[in-house]
Amino acid sequence: THICIFFFFSSWQCFRALCCKGPPPPRPEYDLVCIGLTGSGKTSLLSQLCSESAENIVSTTGFSIKAVPFQNAILNVKELGGAENIRKYWSRYYQGSQGVIFVLDSASSEDDLETARDELHSALQHPQLCTLPFLILANHQDKPAARSIEEV
């Protein structure tokens, strides 16, 4: 009878250890905004981070939201389209952001790089973004015309 009691007690401990822990604690979530000119690579970046196929990527018109899972957190990234007629509405989507990803095409023309610089400066000075962390990503470094970080 002692063996049966020991077996029952051991089985109960294993059962509790496996089944009664409850769900894992929720990962913290952070809301980010991702901005940059059309063709800078915002959609490709987010697709890569979400392990989605990079085929048939189309420029975002308006905005899209993707949840990017990491081991210790989830980033809810609001990607805003970068066309000239959409950029004037970016600020309407800034509220609630906890960080900014600014993507620029490091192989773009001088004019586009200047436009990207102006948009970046505008975002850095915006009251809802000026205190937030910024990640500035110089994308398309694999292209022959890509500028170095110093040049950008």
UniProtKB/TrEMBL annotation:
Record keywords, A-Z: GTP-binding, Magnesium, Metal-binding, Nucleotide-binding, Signal
PROSITE patterns: ARF
Keyword match Metal-binding: yes
Positions that bind GTP: 36-43, 82, 139-142
Family annotation (Gene3D superfamilies): P-loop containing nucleotide triphosphate hydrolases (3.40.50.300)
Signal peptide: 1-17
SMART domains to which the protein is assigned, alphabetical: ARF (SM00177)
Annotated Mg(2+) binding sites: 43, 60
A single MF term (Gene Ontology): GTP binding
Record bears the keyword Lyase: no
Source superkingdom: Eukaryota
Protein family per UniProt: Belongs to the small GTPase superfamily. Arf family.
Identification of the protein by name: ADP-ribosylation factor-like protein 15
Gene: Arl15
